[in-house]
Amino acid sequence: ITMRGDEVIEDADIVIRDNRIVAVGRRGTVEVPQGAQVIDMTGKTIIPGFVDTHSHFRHSPDIHTVQPWALLANLAYGVTTTRDPQTGSTDVLTYADRVTTGDLVGPRIYSTGPGVFSGEHIRSLDQARNVLKRYSEYYDTKTIKMYGAGNRQVRQWIMMAARELRLMPTTE
Q1: What global pTM score does this model have?
Q2: pLDDT for position 118
Q3: N or C, which end of the chain is more exposed by having fewer CB within 10 Å?
């Protein structure tokens, strides 16, 4: 299943390089690199991985396990990428790093880190910039979560600072 509308290729070759699909086409129409591992998938259906954009990673906080079952369960159901829109702890960031390095088996994990709450006491645009810069650098994230961060003015400062830092803000 190609994700090009309703296109399905019944008898296809798929070339994967560095964990990414780089070519798909009818058998014999795609250049397969010499020495590539060939896996016969006759009778199987291959679909692109699912992306769960609102995945709260449930694990025991502050206790890192060798191989969290939730990561394996996601893969078993075809989820190859997850995004946690706000973490209860920063543990998910460690798990994400461990998946990236190959230390754990799991889907790619993206997260906002903890949300920006009213406890930050943001009182100016400059302060919003400082808070978001700290979040994006410390948590190494491209998105932030603004959750009950303050009144309309505070939320506007956060949105302005997020745009300047090229962060994708989400709100609730």
Answers
A1: 0.75
A2: 73
A3: C
